[in-house]
Specification:
Protein name: Sec-independent protein translocase protein TatB
Structural class: mainly alpha
Largest sheet: none
Number of helices: 3
Pfam families: TatA_B_E
Main location: membrane
Subcellular location: Membrane
Shape: elongated
Keywords: Membrane, Protein transport, Translocation, Transmembrane, Transmembrane helix, Transport
Radius of gyration: 33 Å
């Protein structure tokens, strides 16, 4: 529920019984129940209103995929490094701008591209 297990819930109930007292505990439990019901109704009406405002285009959107808490940078990097898709095409270093080979260079000089000037 809120990240608590059964034993922690039992301990909270026992502490509440000791602090509040057995006479007032049912009244507080009833108030808490009505508060939870009102909050749930408020959230449902807000969700229905947002769905009405956005229209039918957004009715099939899976919002959980857009939750930023699900992104793990380590997983993203691992998936990118292990991706088997082919690498994007890159020109050879000796090619000119249009993919034509550059003019042959003399030994000791850099290659000269006629189309670059």
């Amino acid at each position: 529920m809120f990240g608590i297990n059964g034993w922690e819930f039992v301990i909270i109930i026992v502490v509440a019984m000791l602090v509040i007292g057995p006479e007032r505990l049912p009244g507080y439990a009833e108030q808490l129940g009505s508060l939870v019901r009102r909050g749930r109704d408020l959230l449902q009406t807000a969700k229905a209103r947002v769905d009405d405002e956005l229209g039918p285009e957004f009715s099939d959107v899976d919002w959980s995929k857009l939750d930023p808490r699900q992104y793990d940078p380590r997983k993203i990097v691992r998936d990118a490094l292990l991706d088997d898709s082919p690498a994007p095409y890159s020109r050879p270093a000796s090619a000119g701008r249009n993919g034509t080979p550059a003019a042959p260079a003399e030994p000791g000089k850099a290659p000269y591209d006629d189309e670059a000037t």
